[in-house]
Amino acid sequence: MISTVLSTVLAQAWEAPTIDWHALAPELVLMVGINVVLAIDLFLDDAKKWIIATLTGFLMLGAFIPVVTLAVLGDEVRSLFGGRYVVDEYALVLKGLFLLIGYIVVLMSQNELEEGGYYQGEYYLMMLVSVLGMVMMASSRDLLSIFVALELLSIPAYMMAAWRKRDAKSNEAGVKYYLLGVFASGILLFGMSYLYGTTGSTKLTDIGAAISAGDLIAMQVIAVVFVIVGFGFKVSAVPFHTWAPDTYEGAPTPVTAFLSVASKAAGFVGLVSMLFIALYAADGVYEPFIFVLAALTMTVGNLLALRQTNIVRMLAYSSVSQGGFILMPLAVIASGAAESALKAVVIYLLIYAFSNLGAFAVVIAVSRKTRSGEISSFGGLMSYAPGLGVLMTIFLASLTGIPPLGIWIAKFTAFRALLDAGNGIGYALAIIAAVNTVISAAYYMKVLREMWMKPVPDGDTTRIVVPQPVMAALGICAAGTLVLGIVPGLVLRFADLADLTGNGLLSLVGG
Amino acid sequence: MQFSVLTDDNWLLTVGTFLPLVGVLIMMFIPAADETTHKQIAVGVSGLTLAVGVWTLIRFDYGAAESLQFYADVEWISVISSGYTIGLDGISLPLYFLSMAVTFLVALYTWDNMPDAGNPKMFLMLMLVLQVGMAGSFIAQDLILFFVFFELVLLPMYFMIGVWGGEDRQYASLKFFLYTMFGSALMLVAFLALFWKSGADSFSFMALTEAGAGLGRNTQVWIFAGMFVGFAVKVPMFPFHTWLPDAHTQAPTQGSVILAAILLKLGTYGFVRIAIPMLPEGAKAWAPVIGILAVIGIIYGALGCLAQTDMKRLIAFSSVAHMGFVMLGIATLTPLGINAALFGMVAHGLITGMLFFIAGSVKHRYHTLEIKRLGGMLVQMPKLGWLLGFSAMASLGLPGLAGFWGEFPALLAAWNPNQVMGLSTDLFRVLTVIAALGTVLAAAYLLWLYQRTAFGEPKPEFVSGAHHARSLSAAANDEHGDEHGDDHGADIHDVTRLEWIAWTPFLVAIVVFGVYPQLMFKVMDPAVTQLVENLQVGFGR
Predict the structure, then answer these.
(1) ipTM for the complex?
(2) B1 CB near a chain A CB, below 8 Å?
(3) What pTM was computed for the model?
(4) How many CB atoms lie within 10 A of CB A118?
């Protein structure tokens, strides 16, 4: 039996696929880097672990170089492995984003880890692996590679969440994240198996063609729902968000920043690839479903954020609610707003990364002095650390969506996509989002009010010493938030639908 | 429809608008302890900005006040068809200049009158950012650009009230913020809907005015509703006015002056510049509603004033009434009415700004603004007392002072609303009569206020206890250096030299515009006439 199978397999001539090494260069740099970091870490004593941090930072930037050269040189879409792994402008923008987030998080982590005496070498290793998974996710156009990328980015993240080994809360964070994450992977895999079973292919374009060819059958409806639910966990959409606040609070703050920005963005990237390429024609199923998810996510996230007294929990719920805003344009992609919806999602992910990471960086800097995560510990910050105060004001005002700070243009493009669709779903979501923007202002203002208008708790006005790496992270985030808000043209031209359409979406959208 | 542009000196507006940011950048690198330097930079930069404003006044071609001058159109966010489009015409010129003048004078006033919370660095930086937002809103000729500037004023004002304000500052500032935020969120949705529904090829005012008129009636009415909420909150119109008394009462003097003189005008300016010209059908449908709410605001504001026990709160309520007259003028959709409204905006800015300055000085001297504790101001501080009288007279619309030319023509215009647009004459005549009653009430509450605070003998607590009050507040006031040179240690002194310097331009302008209103009307009229003509053309389509 086995011999017959083997003989048939071996009988087929195996052709090595032609590999475009340049297109894979970012992944290769990271892969080599992972091994180098692993090897060097063995021979370093604890006092010299900063070398690993520096090396990891350089690796992120090093992987950025081929992303830039690919963007500059290649105007054509590079399609590998029969269109299962694609490097187009959409993928490049997101790869760049993931690497940049990785770099900023390394900057934010360094002092935290050194002073906490955590497992530094392993931490950076995990982070590199996770970023590798994200970078792969941006290019994956096949059910298998999407799933592999998702696991590759998730599993290290489970461990990073539990990094403070002796802290019960951190353990709780890791375990919760792990159990729910694995559960979500199972659901996703289940949905994918139905897709494969009913269409006979794992390649997204083939699935897209098969689904658009005829009416949906019941199994495909289930598959679409399960895939969205699976990613819904990843992007912490309500009602699949329950892990997020506990995990965010328990995990070390840099890890929380990483999860709330990079991991969430990777989830969205996977969801976007699935929706736009494979499931596009199943709009009757996903549009109302995502409508409900988006409306629930932003509203529930906001209402819960209002009640928080811990800044990290507040930011956790706020990031849940921001996820709703990112999800929102996906509810109208098949209603004539495909192009503006894709643009809105990508722009939102880009700008949100800067503002949210910045807010976390300020939290890290301030908690070095206050040793507290309470919002009240920010009292009177303006009086003794005006620099940090102004930066936090910029980041939170941006998250609220006040022009001319970053996220206003992201919210603007999201609104634009909804109104572009011009149907009932679009208008209803736009109104819900407008109301939610005002609600969100209330809790962001709560922090601003503490910083600007409340006295310093305990009258302790010791200067806050911001370590150099955190300072650099703050600088990058502030520059990103301000510049992208004032000259959004810099990123708005990215993520034209034409790039995604290069792989078969074109025929589906008919444009 | 006709639009014309002149592109001479198109750098002028950009420099005038963004110059204050240079001051902010410099101040950022100077330690907060160096308070005098910060004050010098703020006064210097806002003075320079004002100089650019004066140069703008000189270069403005008054023979072509209806066309956009210093016009520039640079690519900004091309993906969403929004450009950096700026220009100035007779409608925006007075407000643009007013914002520069007020900011300069307020910065000057701050020299000796820093609010108690201290930290002039942050305070003055916020004020300069505020100025950028205000000036920018008046030059923007692109809807998205306008929105960005319009929102830019939000945070600085929030902090100004919340950090340097009175007892209830946190409540007042949050209320201000959430009201405005709610208005702007709906406004933005309305802007986007206008753009998409009309199929305009850009967000520029011109393109949208062309394209907006082509929309169906129902669409226009709905989009107008969104803009109405956004602008009406800012004006503020009844019933969206409840944030105003709190914000005004709690804000520091500087904040109240800027709020009254410029910020409220962003709302009325939005109606004149954006909502009405772009949506003629919507304007027609909403004009009666605006008229009725405006008149309710006039009466309600006046009655509110009569019930107040706090001087500053009274002035705040009088703003609701005055802005009611402005909105009534706008609601008539006639050249006369809109001219009156624009004049009323500037006049109200000058007069109410002046009243808030006086209220600030009274508070500074008596440490209270409770009307029943005040009295005999004319005896103790004859000059300040006379200034209060002068401003009160101007505020109640005494002919010969600026306030008159905002109210009287508005009433006149309401008697004959725009017939081409088909507004109901009967309704507006009823409104005229009720609004005219409002002027009587205005005389009542202002004269009553004046009588209670300025006439009679000073209250005993401020005669014998003056020394005591001084010593109580000495610690708080020492660094603000009262320059009155009074060595008896009494807290109650007449108008200081700095106050004269900061206030004289207001007083002069109130008299000059009162005696010779043509000075402003002739700048505004061509632009307003063309606006109404375009409106009627658009209505006919």
Answers:
(1) 0.82
(2) no
(3) 0.88
(4) 16
